[in-house]
C-alpha cells in the first residue's frame, strides 16, 4: 500500500476537533499515527488489529518479539485489554493514572497477537496528555504504542523528533508540544507474586509502596517493603542525621565529605575494617549480632557523633534489619 506523506501539524492546530477526528479515522483504517503523551511521543495503532500493529513494527524496524504497551483512556477500558486484574493493580491505577505508569497484566486474548506475541501478558497505561486521551476516546479503541523513535534510537520528546525518524513513513503526527515528563513510564510487572519494577521512571519505588506492601527491582535481590500501617511517623530515628550507604565506596565518600560534621560509620566488623575510617561503631560479626546491636549502636552514635552512615545489608534474610535501617534513615541513601 502506498503510504501518504507525513502531514506535520504545527502547534497552533493542536487539539483541534478536526485533527483528532482525522487521526481517529486513520487509526480505524489500520494506519499508524504518532501522538504526544506526557512521557514521550508514541507510535499508535489499533490494538485489536494485527494489520495495524504490524505496521508499527515495520515503521520502527522493531524486532517482532519486543512487546508493545497498550494505551487506554481510563480504568473503564481495562477489561478490553486485560483479564483477572488484581485489586492492587486497580489501586495503583487509581493512585497514579492518568500518568506515567505502565502495569504488566494478564492479557485479554482479543488483543492483536502481535502486541505481545509469545506472552500471556500485556503492558497497560493510561496516559495523562489531553490529546492522547482525546485520541483514544475518539478512536474508541485501545492504542498499542511504543515510543515514537526508530528501534534502538533515542525516544522522541517533541513532534520534530518524530518527524526526523518517520517523515514519509507514517501518515500523521499530532504535535502536542514538548513532553512534560520526558522519560518513559515506570513499568511494574503485576503478574508476579511480588510486583517487579521492570523499568524505572517518574513514579518511584517508594511512591508504589504507598499502595503495594512489597516491590522488587529487576536485576536486584532487594525487596522494598512499605511501612506497616499506622507507622507513618518516623520510627527508629536517631537524633542526628542518618543515611544508608549503598556500598563501601559510597560510605567512605560520604564520610570524607562530611568530615566537619563529625561522621561515623556503623556496620559489621569486616565492613568497618574495610572502610578504615577513624570513627566507627561495630555491629558485631554476624547478621544476628547486627540485629542485636543495631539500636544500641544508633544510641551510642547519636550521643557521640552528628552524622551516621550505616552499612547496607545484601542478604535476603536481612529484611528485618533493612526495614529498621529504612525507617531510621527515612529512606535516605548515599
Ligand atoms: O512512556 C511510555 O511507556 C511510552 C509512551 C509512548 O507510552 N512507551 C514506551 O514504549 O516507552 P516502548 O515500546 O518504547 O517501551 C516499552 C517497554 C519495552 O522495553 C517492552 O519490552 C516492555 O515495555 N514491555 C511491553 N510489554 C511488555 C510485557 N507484556 N512484558 C514485559 N515487558 C513488556
Ligand atoms: Mg522505546
Radius of gyration: 25 Å
Count of DSSP helices? 11
Instruction: List segments where confidence is low: pLDDT < 50 over at least 5 consecutive residues.
Output: 1-15
Rounded mean pLDDT is: 89
The number of E-state strands comes to 17
Write the CATH architecture name of the largest domain: Alpha-Beta Complex
The bound ligands are: threonylcarbamoyladenylate, magnesium ion
Portion of residues in helices? 25-40%
**Through-space gap between termini:** 56 Å
Main sheet, how many strands, which sense, barrel?
13 strands, mixed
Structural class: alpha/beta
Strand content: 15-25%
Oligomer: single chain
Describe the structure.
With 334 residues, the protein is an alpha/beta fold. β10 and β11 form a beta hairpin. 31% of the residues lie in helices and 19% in strands. The chain contains 11 helices and 17 strands. The protein has 2 domains: 4-217, DHBP synthase (Alpha-Beta Complex), CATH 3.90.870; 241-329, Rossmann fold, CATH 3.40.50.11030. The strands form 2 sheets. Strands 1, 2, 3, 4, 5, 6, 7, 8, 9, 10, 11, 12 and 13 form a 13-stranded mixed sheet that branches. The chain has a 4-stranded parallel sheet with strand order 14-17-15-16, sandwiched between helices. The protein has helices spanning 17-28, 50-60, 78-81, 87-96, 130-139, 159-166, 205-208, 248-257, 269-275, 287-304, 319-329; strands at 7-8, 33-35, 42-46, 69-71, 82-83, 101-107, 121-125, 143-144, 172-173, 186-189, 196-199, 214-217, 223-225, 241-244, 263-267, 280-282, 307-310. The structure holds threonylcarbamoyladenylate (TXA) and magnesium ion. The site of threonylcarbamoyladenylate has 24 residues, from β6 and β7. Magnesium ion (MG) binds next to loops.
Amino acid at each position: 500500500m502506498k503510504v501518504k506523506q507525513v502531514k506535520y501539524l504545527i502547534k497552533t492546530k493542536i487539539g483541534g476537533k478536526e485533527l483528532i477526528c482525522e487521526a481517529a479515522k486513520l487509526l480505524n483504517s489500520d494506519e499508524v499515527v504518532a501522538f504526544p503523551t506526557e512521557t514521550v511521543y508514541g507510535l499508535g495503532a489499533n490494538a485489536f488489529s494485527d494489520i495495524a500493529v504490524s505496521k508499527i513494527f515495520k515503521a520502527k524496524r522493531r524486532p517482532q518479539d519486543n512487546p508493545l504497551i497498550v494505551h487506554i483512556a481510563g480504568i473503564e477500558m481495562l477489561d478490553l485489554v486485560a483479564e483477572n486484574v488484581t485489586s492492587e493493580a486497580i489501586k495503583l491505577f487509581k493512585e497514579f493514572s492518568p500518568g506515567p505508569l505502565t502495569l504488566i497484566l494478564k492479557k485479554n486474548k482479543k488483543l492483536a497477537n502481535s502486541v505481545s506475541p509469545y506472552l500471556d501478558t500485556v503492558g497497560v497505561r493510561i496516559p495523562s496528555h489531553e490529546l492522547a486521551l482525546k485520541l483514544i476516546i475518539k478512536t474508541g479503541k485501545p492504542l498499542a504504542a511504543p515510543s515514537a523513535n526508530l528501534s534502538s534510537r533515542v525516544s522522541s520528546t517533541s513532534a520534530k523528533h518524530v518527524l526526523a525518524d518517520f517523515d514519509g513513513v507514517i501518515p500523521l503526527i499530532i504535535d502536542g508540544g514538548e513532553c512534560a515528563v520526558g522519560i518513559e513510564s515506570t513499568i511494574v510487572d503485576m503478574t508476579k507474586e511480588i510486583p517487579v519494577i521492570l523499568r524505572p521512571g517518574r513514579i518511584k519505588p517508594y511512591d508504589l509502596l504507598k499502595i503495594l506492601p512489597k516491590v522488587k527491582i529487576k536485576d536486584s535481590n532487594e525487596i522494598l517493603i512499605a511501612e506497616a500501617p499506622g507507622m507513618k511517623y518516623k520510627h527508629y530515628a536517631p537524633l542526628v542525621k542518618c543515611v544508608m550507604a549503598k556500598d563501601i565506596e559510597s560510605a567512605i565518600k560520604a564520610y570524607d565529605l562530611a568530615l566537619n560534621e563529625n561522621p561515623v560509620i556503623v556496620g559489621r566488623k569486616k565492613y568497618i575494617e574495610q572502610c578504615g575510617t577513624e570513627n566507627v561503631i561495630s555491629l558485631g560479626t554476624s547478621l544476628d549480632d547486627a540485629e542485636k546491636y543495631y539500636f544500641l549502636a544508633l544510641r551510642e552514635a547519636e550521643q557521640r557523633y552528628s552524622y551516621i552512615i550505616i552499612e547496607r545489608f545484601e542478604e535476603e534474610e536481612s529484611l528485618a534489619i533493612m526495614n529498621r535501617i529504612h525507617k531510621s534513615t527515612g529512606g535516605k541513601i548515599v
